[in-house]
Amino acid sequence: MSRVAKIDENIYCPNCGKHEHQVKHGKNKSGSQKYRCNDCNIDYTPEPRPWQYSEEVREQAIKTYYSGVSGRRVGILNNFSKSNVYNWIKKRNK
Ligand SMILES: [Zn+2]
Fold this sequence. Notes:
Elements: E1 22-27, E2 33-37, E3 42-44, H1 55-66, H2 71-78, H3 82-92
Antiparallel strand pairs: 1-2, 2-3
Zinc ion is lined by residues 13, 15-16, 18, 37, 39-40.
């Protein structure tokens, strides 16, 4: 049995940027998984990244938004934050 717990492949230390030596380190108040970098000895909560959503999901969200649904509502319907929706729309309008 391995003593090293597998961690999510998207976990990188915000300080040194390493993927190695990252370990799970409890949860924060809102219940999100926290991690610790054993190189820097810092604890952090990985940020959910908007670009992890697929192109399809983003397109659908943007379409819904332009059909007259508020950004907040689009977020609720699709289970992501409204700031994601606004970011995608901003990017798209560039
Ligand atoms: Zn680090």
